[in-house]
Amino acid sequence: MQYPDGKEIRIDDLIWADEGIQIGRIVGILETEAEYAAWEESGPCILYTQDIFSSGESGALFSLPANLLAQEGIRALTEDERLLLRCLCRMLADQTGHDIHASDCVCHIWKYPVPLPDGACDHRWCFHLGSARENAPHPGWYALDNATLAFSPLTDEELLVLWGHPFYYITPATGGIAEAPPPGS
User: Interior CA angle at 47 toward 19 and 138, to 5°?
Assistant: First the structure.
């Protein structure tokens, strides 16, 4: 199976998922009828997890049909993006003391587009750290300040804004910024 750009999809590829705002990891490539039927899919699909450092056994797995990869903005991270991700993870660990590679740490990473008054687009990196163990400490949400390169915990109010509306995303077809429809529409 291939990405929309023609590159071969491989297990453990780091990908842009969720319309290009979240980093995921490929954990399955289902190409035979028996494989994709087991996931109640009607054709070939990929399986990915949002928890990019774990085995995928502790978090949710998502299936996505091959014919929707372009529409959903699925593509592999470039080498430069992988290097940036490694640097951000190291900075987060150094600044917070949380080892995101620990076997019981669950880490989800988003890069939210933020529209600027001049029509340009900036991005805000957000990391959600949790635990795969029940009743374990939950480190929470951290956001990177692009100016200072410092991570800080997100407050409840910031989370409401982050998950509220208007919510913006990058359109895979044009690379432009778009506003998501209100919930329930």
Answer: 75
| C-alpha 51, offset from chain centre | 8
Any bridge partners for residue 150, and if so which?
A: 145
Nearest to 130 by CA among 105, 154, 97: 105
Residue 174 · residue 115 · CB < 8 Å = no
What distance in Å separates the CA atoms of residue 62 and residue 47, rounded to the nearest whole number? Answer: 5
Helices (H) and strands (E) in the chain, counts: 3, 11
Neighbouring C-beta atoms of residue 23, cutoff 10 Å: 24
Q: How confident is residue 38, by pLDDT bands cut at 50, 70 and 90?
A: very high
Separation between Cα atoms, residue 67 and residue 65, nearest integer Å: 5
Query: Between residues 178 and 8, which one has the greater pLDDT?
Result: 8
Please tell me the distance from the alpha carbon of residue 23 to that of residue 110, in angstroms, as a whole number: 6
Residue 49 has pLDDT above 60, yes or no: yes
